[in-house]
C-alpha cells in the first residue's frame, strides 16, 4: 500500500504537524541555553528535527494502536537520555518520588541496586538485611526475568518499577551468577526497606568495625555517632571500614564520611562542561577518628560514593584499601525537578580522586588484593593434640584478656584478613616507637 499524498491527508494530520512544529519551536528556544557551553557557531540541526517530526507523524498515523502526543513525547525524552549513558534518565512522577524515597532511606521493594551491563540487568549490590540480601543475591548476578517479564527489553527504570511494589506482595526473579551453570529462580516478598546505612561492632577488643551499606542524607552523622559508640567501649587500635557492596548515594555524605578520618587535604573534585559542575571538597579539622589505623574493604559492588571515600583515603595514605577492584562508577548525576512532579537525572560531571585519578570505568584498585572465600578445616591427618584437649587439664586461672570475638568474622575471609592486617600494622608501629 502506498503512502497517501500530502495534499490528501486528513485535517487531523494538520493538528499533528502543528504539535511537532510546536515541539520543534520549544526545542529551538531551549537550544541557546543548552549550547552556551559549546562553540558559538553551532547550528540548530534542522534536518534531524525535521526527521523527528516525520517519525512522530508516521507513528501517530500508522502505529497499530492509537498513541497520544504526551506519551510519544515522554518516550522521546526517555530515549534521548537513555542513549547518553546508563545513569541519565527521565523521571516520571513515580520514579522521581522513588528516587527521593531511596535517598531519604525508605522505600517499598526488595532492597537491591541494579544497573545495565551491556544491556543486561545486573545486580550491583544487595542492601544489607533486605529480602534480596537474605535470598543470597550477589554483585554481578544477572537478572534474566522479573516474574514473567524478560529483562532484555526493559529499560533500567522499567526494571526498577517492576521490582518495587506493595509490602507483602511476592516477586520471582530468574538470576544467574558469574560462576553458575544454570539460572535459578528466587522468590522474595517485598518489604518496606528502611535502610539504616551505618552499623558498627567490636571485632575483638580494641578493633572496631564500621559497615556503610549506602550513602544517604544522614550517613555522615551516623558514622560520627558510631565512632563515638566504638570509642566508648575502649581505646581503638584499629578500624575496618567495610564498603563492600555499597552502591553509593549522596555525594555530600561521602565527603562527610571521608572527613571523619581526615583532618586536612582534598577529598574529591568534579569536572564537567558547565562551570557549576566543577566542585572541590576538602577535609576539615573537625575529625572524629584522625589517627586510628584504618583498613577499607571494597569489592566489585562498591560504587560511586563508596569509591570516592576509598579513593580519598587511599590517595591521602590514611588507610590501606583491601579486597577486589571496585565497580568504576565515577560520574556525577544532578537531579533536576521539572516543575510538574517529574524530574531529570542528568550526568553532568566526573569524579576525580585527590591525586587526579578518574574513577569512571576504572574503579579503585586495592592496595592489598584479597578475593572472597571461606576458611575450611585442614586435613585431620596432621592433627596435633594440645594441652587444652586433654581430659582434666588445668584451667588458665580466669578469662584471658582479648578472648572476645565477633561472630562477623566467622566465614568472612576478607574481614578476617583486614583484622590481621590491622594487628600487623600495630606491631610494626610499636617496634618503630621503641
From TrEMBL:
Q: Which domain of life is it from?
A: Bacteria
* Keyword line: Hydrolase, Protease, Serine protease, Signal
Keyword Transmembrane helix recorded: no
The record's InterPro entries line, in alphabetical order, gives: ClpP/crotonase-like_dom_sf, CtpA/B_N, PDZ, PDZ_6, PDZ_sf, Peptidase_S41A, Tail-specific_protease
Q: Give the Basic and acidic residues compositional bias ranges.
A: 388-399
Region: Disordered; residue ranges are 388-409
Domain named PDZ is located at 96-164
Q: What NCBIfam families does this protein map onto?
A: prc
Family statement drawn from the similarity comment of this UniProt entry: Belongs to the peptidase S41A family.
Which PANTHER family does the record associate with it? CARBOXY-TERMINAL PROCESSING PROTEASE CTPA (PTHR32060:SF30), TAIL-SPECIFIC PROTEASE (PTHR32060)
Name of protein = Peptidase S41
